[in-house]
Amino acid sequence: MDIVTASKLANTFLRELEAPFIGRHEEAVVITLSLMSGEHAILIGEPGTAKSALVRRASELLNARFFKYLLTKYTEPGELFGPLDVKGLREGYYRRVTRGKLPEADIAFLDEIFNANSAVLNSLLSIMQERVLYDGYMEIRVPLWSLIGASNKTPEEVELEALYDRFLYRHHVKPLEVEYWDKLLDATWAIEKGEAPPAERVMSIEDLKGIVKTVLSVDLSRVKAPLIKLFLALQEKGLHLTDRRKGKILKAIAAHAVLNGRATANENDLIVLKYTVPKDIEDFDKVSIILMEELRTKDRVLRELEEIKANIEAARRTVLKLQSFDPKLIDYYRSLKTARNRVTSLVKDFEDQEVMKAAEEVIEMIDDIIQDIMAKLNM
User: Fold this and answer.
1) Among candidates 261, 309, 354, 251, which has minimal Cα distance to 4?
2) Which of 63, 116, 233, 346 is the most buried if burial means most Cβ atoms within 10 Å?
3) Is residue 92 part of a domain?
4) What is the mean pLDDT of residues 20-45?
């Protein structure tokens, strides 16, 4: 699959996935990236934040076989993997009836996954890593594409570390901020009345297989050095990554590049580390802050542009007060030229329309003040 087709399919899926939900763009991005890379994701947050609804809609948009279950410490393997075939046992052979269960699902959603007991946990590990269910003397190949887990907390038990590490993508799902409440009420009422947009298939599991091949063809040469630098910065802040996770992160970076229509990953794609590095709840905000400081992210660039704009407005007020041929005008002229070059450099190779529009506004302000200075200097 070529990069244009892969990106178009993925973005259509993302747009349709988040359509009925208010303020859940980031959650939709995490699910989309996990599907694009054939990896697993964990959504951490309180109940009632649309976690299961998002995953169910994702499976509907793919027309995929879906399995959902709420785990407790008493959950038996048969509840997930199917009951034993009693008739078969009587006839001397061992097998499970897997129809409608996890071994036949393309996408699975396991709520409160960290409640899994050891019997379930061991089977989940092999399914997530190898796509194989080891059951007695049998090895059952499973078609599972992605497993999305949910929990209201991060695990603290040592025995759950291996399971947690299998989730490449991790996201803290927070309750909506007050500015979303009005739209939330309208959207919820529409759902109650049956007026929510239906989930019609936009692509298939076969399409995902093509997208994964495209993801694996992405050129990562430009991000290797800055990625290692970031790993070091994160480690200095106490954010440890396993060797497996360091390698898997490349897949997330490549998926983000494809989502944005690029066959070559760049520094913008390193933003996915906010979905792949955090371990504890407090890590999510910590990683975002580190990335904003270390990367030329959209938020960081917009923040810098706002700071430059504030300085330019202050300079305009001063310039207007200065008399013609005042020597200070030359200093302001040079400073404004430097600021203009800074803005141009800041947004170089940046593709985001919001960033480019903000930069154009700042440059226009600078040019206007430079014209005023030139008029006062009679240049």
Assistant:
1) 261
2) 116
3) no
4) 95
Express each pLDDT in 142-200 by its tens digit.
999 999 999 999 998 888 999 999 999 999 999 988 888 999 999 889 888 888 778 88
Q: Does 111 share its domain with 200?
A: yes
Q: Which two tokens stand for residue 59?
A: 């499976």
Q: What is the mean pLDDT of the chain?
A: 90
Closest by CA position to 147, among listed 120, 171, 174, 129 = 129
Same domain, 117 and 179: yes
Same domain, 150 and 251: no
pTM over 0.85: no
Say which residues have a Cβ less than 8 Å from residue 173's Cβ, sequence separation at least 6: 27, 43, 44, 45, 46, 49, 50, 51
Statement: residue 311 has pLDDT above 90: no
**3-state secondary structure labels for all residues of the chain:** CCHHHHHHHHHHHHHHHHCCCCCCHHHHHHHHHHHHHCCEEEEECCCCCCHHHHHHHHHHHHCCCEEEEECCCCCCHHHHHCCECHHHHHCCCCCECCCCCHHHCCEEEEECHHHCCHHHHHHHHHHHHHCEEEECCEEEECCCCEEEEEECCCCCCHHHHHHHHCEEEEEECCCCCHHHHHHHHHHHHHHHCCCCCCCCCCCCHHHHHHHHHHHHCCECCCCHHHHHHHHHHHHHCCCCCCHHHHHHHHHHHHHHHHHCCCCECCHHHHHHHHHHCCCCHHHHHHHHHHHHHHCCCHHHHHHHHHHHHHHHHHHHHHHHHCCCCCCHHHHHHHHHHHHHHHHHHHCCCCCCHHHHHHHHHHHHHHHHHHHHHHHHCCC
The domain in which residue 118 lies consists of 3-77+104-209
Reported as a single tens digit per residue, the pLDDT across 318-351 is 888 888 888 888 888 888 998 888 888 888 777 7
- Domain shared by 42 and 139, yes or no: yes
Find out whether 56 and 109 touch, Cβ atoms under 8 Å.
yes
CATH number, domain containing residue 156:
3.40.50.300
pLDDT 10s digits, 128-138 = 999 998 877 77
Backbone angles phi, psi at 8, to 5 degrees: -65, -45
